[in-house]
Design goal:
By secondary structure, this protein is an alpha/beta fold. 55% of the residues lie in helices and 14% in strands. Helix 5 (127-144) packs parallel to helix 8, helix 6 packs across helix 7 (176-183) and helix 9 runs antiparallel to helix 11 (262-295). It is elongated. The chain starts with a strand and ends with a helix. The mean pLDDT is 88. The chain binds uridine-5'-diphosphate and magnesium ion (MG).
Length: 314
């Protein structure tokens, strides 16, 4: 098998017909053996029915049904584990990543790159998402030292050895683009189009988004842990300086001034408390991930596979 497209699907029933048609129209003229793997991440709309029906008609379409919702990256990992292609391309189901860009990714792969990332040329998301994403990209670039410009864009191509390395990771969370670039020998980025969502809304609300960004930071770096220690030391110095200041004030201006200064003490205490809570929180994030890794539960659980593999198994 030359090429596998891996597409995570979570309640995207309305986009699927169009998506599959466009992917087939792009891949068939390439003259390569290919498969389109749709990983249903616990949808409750008609996504599964559509995937099943399509996989019965189109030989290249394969469906993997997870038993509940594990998140976009876990779904892509499930697709990777089943894929047989030498080159693997990921994209979203909502048609925000135009399938027509795939040949441009393959062009770069054929030039010898092992990972082809992409940067959304004119991102069609809300101002809030775009702004947060800009700052997160910037911060992650500094912290992880993985030089990418758009961590969130999943329209990407990988050579098989990179995917094998991703599958061999034992982390309980895997932020695929960053990990893949970590393993890559000569990654490259291209500009790609980004469309409005075909139908429906983004599956990332504010809580899921925070979760995703925390995963992104923590899966690649222990820098936040050091940040907590540095913040703690800085706050101790500030506390010490403020204590000395208050002592001098009391010495020069008497105890009445010091009683007024009680609010300064309060505010300092709140700053210190904030620092302590922040440090404990950061520790907690790592602890939770250590705990999940120690439990060693599978990243996802496949309920059923429909399409090519089902026929192969007969
Ligand atoms: N997705 C998924 N599981 C989830 C959330 C999202 O498989 O828990 C899929 C979703 O169906 C889509 C892709 O991941 O194909 C990207 O999701 P979305 O378009 O909501 O993200 P956004 O474009 O807003 O970043
Ligand atoms: Mg989207």
């Amino acid at each position: 098998m030359d090429l596998s497209l891996i597409i995570p699907v979570f309640n995207e029933g309305k986009c699927l017909d169009n998506l599959i048609q466009r992917c087939l129209s792009v891949c068939r003229p390439l003259g390569q053996e290919f498969e389109i793997i749709l990983v249903d991440d616990g949808s409750w709309d008609d996504s599964r029915k559509i995937i099943e029906a399509k996989s019965a008609i189109e030989a290249e379409v394969l469906g993997i049904f997870l038993n509940h919702n594990y998140g976009q990256h876990a779904a892509v990992m499930a697709g990777f584990a089943q894929a047989q292609g030498e080159i693997l391309v990921t994209l979203d189901a909502d048609l925000q990543n135009p399938p027509e860009e795939i040949p441009r990714l393959l062009e770069k792969i054929n030039l010898g790159h092992d990972v082809v990332g992409s940067v959304r040329r004119k991102r069609q998301d809300t101002k809030f998402r775009t702004t947060v994403s800009h700052w997160v990209n910037h911060m992650v670039r500094i912290i992880t030292k993985v030089n990418m410009h758009d961590y969130g864009c999943m329209l990407r191509a990988y050579r098989r050895p990179i995917v094998e390395a991703l599958l061999a990771c034992r982390d309980s969370t895997r932020f695929i683009p960053v990990l893949a670039n970590f393993f890559a020998v000569n990654p490259v980025e291209i500009d790609v189009d980004h469309a409005q969502r075909d139908t429906g809304d983004s599956k990332y609300n504010i809580f899921r988004l925070i979760n995703l960004y925390v995963d992104l930071l923590i899966c690649m770096s222990t820098f936040p842990l050091r940040l907590a220690s540095v913040a703690g030391i800085l706050m101790s110095f500030v506390g010490l300086a403020a204590g000395l200041f208050l002592l001098c004030g009391r010495f020069f201006f008497g105890s009445i001034w010091a009683v007024d200064g009680i609010f300064t003490v309060f505010s300092l205490e709140f700053i210190l408390l904030g620092g302590i809570y922040l440090s404990v929180g950061i520790l907690g994030e790592y602890m939770a991930r250590l705990y999940n890794t120690a439990r060693n539960r599978p990243l996802y659980c496949i309920q059923r596979v429909v399409g090519r593999t089902e026929k192969d198994n007969l």
